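Could you please consider the sequence and fold following this short note?
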Amino acid sequence: MNNNVVLFTKYKKKVLCLYIEEGIPKDLKLFDDEELGIRSVYIGKVKNIVKNIGAAFVEIAPKQNCFLKLEELEKYHVLNRERTAPDLKQGDELLVQIVKGAVKDKAPVCTGKIKLPKDELNRVLEIAPTRTVHSVLYSGRPKYLSFLQGVDIKNIDRIVCVDDTVYQDVDAYIDGLNGVNGFSEEDVARIRGNIGIYSDNEYPVNKLYKIDSIIAELTCHKLWLKSGANVVIDYTEAMTVIDVNSAKSIADKHPDHILRINTEAANEIFRQIKLRNISGMILIDFINDDNDGTDKLIEHVKSLCGKGTEDCNYVDITGLGIIELTRKKTGRPIYELL
């Protein structure tokens, strides 16, 4: 596997986004599956028409059908033939817009009446005749694409998508970066070349990237560190309380033994804060150290607050030696979502 990877997959009927840096999970978010492709416009192909319910099934991606209710046919944009009447036939290629995501075994719902800002609609109608079936002409920017905003995309080796629908949404998002925030045409072309659909049906992508193990780690109560120390994470209604214990770590003659354990614990705690999406008040009880060790630990914690933890702030250290942090809420924590 590549060292720096972004994975978009499915987990418990949600879209799971995972960022792996140098083989270590650094960020993870879960989004409701029904957000997939909402408002996106595709060139779909009519697979079959069910006259008794006044509907059709339209394929927008390989093996991905949408439910289309046949109404106001005169407003539908059929691309493969000239229509002499407001009708629809099997095999027709037409513009469809997703209005409702898949629910359990029900297909997503689409419409042939495209609703977009005037300039976007004009652009879609202009480019549609030059594109092929399954093309995404307008991306409704599903919420899960916001995950890419917190990732250094230029340094990603691979973006792995679970299916064609996700692939097209991600590809359209990257394509839209051209000329934005310092992204050149060459940057965009290179990044798009790194996007791929995982297609090994015999070895599931979630198994390859050990998703179950990662989720187990992010929902467990106690984490063991390489030193033999452990970190215990407890959630309360008002705050998150984290305790660092020396546990199985063996004291050595190095004068900074406790500081080294606390530093190792701090690194892991901040990784967990981001991965678990912990927010609000966070209290951390590190192992007691002398004044010099405590001062160095505080400086290290302050430096970690500025390393991509999304508004994590150092507040103070109490008289009992408990470090206080706050973090802005950005969605629900993973233990609630699961």
